[in-house]
Specification:
globular, DNA binding, about 190 residues, Rna Polymerase Sigma Factor, Chain: A, 9 helices
């Protein structure tokens, strides 16, 4: 029987540090994937995911089980991603490995190994274009879309996390879809 997240947080607050391991096993990959979609860089996403769980541990005594644990956890991750984006804006750098993320990005793992070279190349181009278009969305639209599509959160839950109404979230998702539709109309008719 799986222990609920709120009970694991209560155990963590009570001094059972192994409860954090269980939470990390359960949530680390989803948090890292969310942060990758927010930052577009695997190494930074991995670092921010680890920092998310450090912050979770530090806040173990302040956690209140009156809401969804996932909302609480993704709020921490989202804040870290926003802080990182602000820091990057103040400290611009050029990555020497920028092309390696494009070559080894998420598209590489989604291509059918039985497909022919032409079909594989076409799918890789499409997935790369979609990924670039998604990364080019404004941060608030990208965050709302990530939480809605990949985390399956509802408008109200995303609104709590983002500090806005469910209607505002619905509008952001609509705007993101319209932008993506316009940017990808040549590739995905």
């Amino acid at each position: 029987m799986e222990i609920p997240d709120c009970d694991l947080m209560a155990s963590l607050a009570g001094g059972d540090d192994l409860a954090l391991d269980r939470l990390m096993e359960r949530w680390a990959s989803r948090v890292a994937a969310f942060l990758y979609r927010m930052t577009g860089q695997r190494e930074i996403a991995a670092d921010l995911a680890q920092e998310t769980f450090v912050k979770l541990y530090q806040a173990r005594d302040r956690y209140r089980a009156d809401g969804n644990f996932s909302t609480y956890l993704f709020a921490i991750a989202s804040n870290l991603a926003k802080n990182h984006a602000r820091w990057r804006k103040r400290h611009p750098t050029v990555s020497l490995d920028a092309s390696s993320d494009e070559v080894n990005g998420p598209a590489l793992h989604l291509v059918d190994p039985r497909a022919g070279p032409g079909e594989t190349a076409q799918k890789m181009e499409t997935m790369t274009a979609v990924s670039k278009a998604f990364q080019a969305l404004p941060p608030d639209l990208r965050e709302a879309m990530s939480l809605f599509i990949y985390e399956g959160m509802g408008y109200a839950e995303i609104g709590v996390l983002m500090g806005c109404t469910g209607k505002a979230v619905e509008t952001r998702i609509y705007r993101a879809r319209q932008i993506l539709k316009e940017q990808l109309k040549e590739i995905c008719p």
